[in-house]
Hints:
The chain has 136 residues and is mainly beta. It is built from one helix and eight strands, in the order αββββββββ.
Amino acid sequence: MTMPAFNFLNMKLPEEEKLHKLIVVGDRVLIKPLTLSKKTKGGLFLPPGYSEKEEIQTGYVLRAGPGYPIPVPENEDEPWKRSEGDNIRYIPLQAKVGDLAIFLQKGAIEIVYNDEKYFIVSQNSVLLLEREDEPE
């Protein structure tokens, strides 16, 4: 199975159409793992599941949460009158949809959605992001 081609012009992956109902919360990202070659450079075939046991995994960010919530200032006269959802602010994540992420396996939660395997990863477990230059 090969990874689908990525279109950087409209920033949508084919899987994103299937995932539109999923909302990632907080500082987490949803990652589709890459399938690595089952054969080494020396010609040895790796057993199934070998790459899943590695400490470090690689995949594409398909969804990203809003970020780290920032507390609302307490200097308001009547904070109980505030409606829910007012003044919710976040520190945004570095990871964006379409980034190639290298992350720690032990910090990831594996899920299966629509018969596809994904990882939910906290930004703390993401080690490196590769991002294509955005068109000007």
